[in-house]
Amino acid sequence: MLNDILVSAGLPYLTYLILSSYGVPTVTALAVGSVFPIASIVVAFVRSRRIQAIGILTLSATVASVITSLYFNSAYLALAKGSLITGCVGLVFGLSLLAPRPLIFYLESSDAEGRARAETLWQTAPQFRKVMRFITGVWCIGLLGEASLRLVLIPLLPIDVFLPVSEVMWIACFGLLMAWSYRYGHRKMAKAAG
Prior knowledge:
By secondary structure, the protein is an all-alpha fold. 85% of the residues lie in helices and 0% in strands.
């Protein structure tokens, strides 16, 4: 994860600072910095030979952000990439509430045994279904809220301040949501069990 943060946040930020200090226009400096996360996603795909949904979403948002920011010469559009990604992920969580099982149900466990246990709980424990749906809803609201807040901060903060603040925001948001989900889910299921 540290490597991902370095490539996706550190190198673009450093590139922006260096290019800006040499007088390169803001939008161009931000666009050049986007090369690192794009290359990271492509390298991950080549290594694993698997398409990951979050990688495709990140790649699409990054490329769209670079193209639109260069076309419209807008630093705002270049900086809105992060909000586009977390906002889309938040929408996916929200839309999954309309599906037979919400997204958190599928993310709850990564091994076959855990998935089988989750399926059994889904079939037999109404409290489990309620908890999975509630956690999914909280993720939707949390991610959409974080994306919206970042969009509000873009014009309020200088770019060299916004870039690290933006990265800290999404890391903190995901970290808090994961910690809360784990704690809330275990507490509610323990209470239901006994």
